[in-house]
Design brief:
The chain is mostly helical. It has four helices and no strands.
Length: about 120
């Protein structure tokens, strides 16, 4: 709400996923026309097969092929919108300040699609 009113504020949450959700809500409407072309880039980059380890938590909920597709999309969002020099995974970032509202938007879209 503070962001919408133009007030500078800081927020904290114990759950890192909720930090990403809050950041996604700050995405400005002026970015909306670019979302489709960014989604096309994310999907094109996500076509690469992503190997998952046997102990990947997604493997507990999804089949290997589905878990691999989800990780591939996550990796694509990460490398296009957060850090090009190396994929560490959203859960391994030491600070969520490097996640832009745009990246957060696509991660929340992925979260919701999975859910």
């Amino acid at each position: 709400m503070a962001y919408a009113l133009g007030i500078e504020a800081e927020g904290y949450d114990l759950n890192p996923a909720m930090v990403v959700v809050a950041k996604a809500k700050t995405l400005g409407r002026n970015v909306y026309p670019s979302l489709i072309s960014l989604l096309d880039d994310i999907c094109a980059k996500a076509d690469d097969v992503c190997d998952i380890s046997a102990n990947d938590p997604l493997a507990n909920w999804f089949g290997r092929q589905s878990a691999s597709a989800i990780r591939s999309i996550e990796k694509s969002i990460f490398s296009l919108l957060i850090r090009r020099d190396g994929y560490t995974g959203l859960g391994r970032l030491t600070c969520l300040s490097s996640v832009s509202a745009l990246a957060a938007f696509f991660f929340v879209a992925l979260f919701r699609a999975i859910r």
